[in-house]
Amino acid sequence: MNAPLNDAKADISQVKLLINGEWVESKTQEWRDIVNPATQQVLARVPFATSDEVNSAISAAQQAFARWKRTPIGARMRIMLKYQALIREHMKRIAQTLSAEQGKTLADAEGDIFRGLEVVEHACSVGSLQMGEFAENVAGEVDTYTLRQPIGVCAGITPFNFPAMIPLWMFPMAIVCGNTFVLKPSEQDPLSTMQLVELALEAGIPPGVLNVVHGGKGVVDALCTHPDIKVVSFVGSTAVGTHVYDLAGQHGKRVQAMMGAKNHAVVLPDANKEQTLNALVGAAFGAAGQRCMATSVAVLVGKTREWLPELKAKAEQLKVNAGSESGTDVGPLISKRARERVLGLIESGVAEGATLLLDGRDVQVPGYEQGNFVGPTLFSGVTTEMRIYTEEIFGPVLVTMEVDTLDEAIALVNRNPFGNGTGLFTQSGAAARKFQSEIDVGQVGINIPIPVPVPFFSFTGSRGSKLGDLGPYGKQVVQFYTQTKTVTARWFDDDSVNDGVNTTITLR
């Protein structure tokens, strides 16, 4: 199963484009190396597609839409049923690729795929998800009903940190709703994404219904401005997401942009200490902190500030190593550039007066000396003016802040501009109810550090973490990938009484 790759000079494979069901060798002059972040080994080369190639992919999707939108829902659903089975069958193989190109542990790579698989499984319910509404006799012999119809060619722009889950949030739901799709994976780690695309074709997705182009800003801008693209879905950084939302919106697209975060976990003194500390460490340092839903701020209320030594002790026990190595807890960051950015932010925290309780800057990993590693890092004494608080670090860094009351904690979280996720650790139902009611964040966890909902519900990040009003999966994404048509109808028998001309707005 090597269709997306082509042998090239020096035995380095070239990633192909997918256009109209065919694997296409790009004619571009611009290529990027895909690098194993633990070893710096070049795994493959990815093309930055030319404008003609992007246009060809969009044209293929536009032509396929005319046929695909008429495909019965049952036929679309059966493709997704086969697709989820294929993903499950090949999960371990894809996880190995994902770990090699992204750096995650093998277990976390499988989790990345599984959370995407859950969305594919939900797509198999399209028969009920895409139903409209009907009301009989809303006026004199008048019925009104709605149709949920596919909207057209959709585009997806996905990030490096979840090369399996995020693409699977996008194209399966768009396609099962009757749309066609042009996917632009992250240029940093597209290999596992392409393996999933290959399985989608094997499952029976017809030529042109799913297309893939690779590249950077030029390709992104082309997708945001092309007149045949009707919908753009984005997950990534705040800077790029804001650009995508603004540019695509200016060109009349329906857009959703899931962006950056600064997720707080509030810890009350009555919380179960052991479970809470384990949750904080796992959520802060798992995936090397490269999750938009990572816990990056622990707000310690009252006496829980006394838990800091135990929090540090648990973080110190984590094993930093290549993701492919057994027992690894924290793998490398995606790139040398990402590592330098995280190191710079850690240094800024020290310079601005925070207390560095655990320093991961000089971590050594025998056998992987060239890896992009940063060890678990823990700060205390952090204030809201410090860069390590105001900026999303996207690395294995946990900052802690101390307040006296739950009200102060809620006010602190609500002042932060981001709204992706937050958590409360407590054994008090009253405190939990107060928190979930008063907190101004889209996704709330109660004794759960990363409150990403299952696909039966929608991803509901808010405020500075999200642009657009509909989430990327669940019921909301069916609304996002369809347009609602309302039909108001009256039928007459041949011997119906003629009521004459009616010049009023009222139905009779």
Shape: globular
* Largest sheet: spatial strand order: 16-17-18-15-14-20-21
Helix content: 25-40%
Uncertain regions: pLDDT < 50 for 5+ in a row?
A: 6-10
- Strand runs, count: 24
Structural class: alpha/beta
> N-to-C terminal Cα separation, in Å?
63 Å
Instruction: Indicate the proportion of strand residues.
Output: 15-25%
Arithmetic mean of pLDDT: 95
The major beta sheet can be summarized as:
7 strands, mixed
Count of discrete alpha- or pi-helical segments spanning 4 or more residues: 16
Question: Briefly, what is this?
Answer:
This protein has 508 residues and is an alpha/beta fold. Helix content is 36%, strand content 22%.
Q: Could you characterize the architecture of this molecule?
A:
The protein has 508 residues and is an alpha/beta fold. 36% of the residues lie in helices and 22% in strands. It has 16 helices and 24 strands. The protein has helices at residues 51-68, 73-89, 91-102, 106-123, 126-129, 165-176, 191-203, 217-225, 238-250, 273-285, 308-316, 336-351, 387-390, 406-415, 429-438, 475-480, and strands at residues 5-6, 13-15, 17-19, 22-24, 31-35, 42-47, 134-139, 142-150, 153-157, 180-184, 210-212, 229-235, 254-258, 263-267, 295-301, 355-358, 377-380, 397-403, 418-419, 422-425, 444-446, 462-463, 466-467, 482-490. The strands form six sheets. Strands 16-17-18-15-14-20-21 form a seven-stranded mixed β-sheet, with helices on both faces. A six-stranded mixed β-sheet has the order 11-10-9-12-13-23, with helices on both faces. Strands 1-2-6-5 form a four-stranded mixed β-sheet, with helices on one face. Helix 2 runs antiparallel to helix 4 (106-123) and helix 10 crosses helix 11 (308-316). The radius of gyration is 25 Å and the shape is globular. InterPro entries: Ald_DH/histidinol_DH, Ald_DH_C, Ald_DH_CS_CYS, Ald_DH_N, Aldehyde_DH_dom, MeMal-semiAld_DH. Belongs to the aldehyde dehydrogenase family. It is an enzyme of class 1 (oxidoreductase).
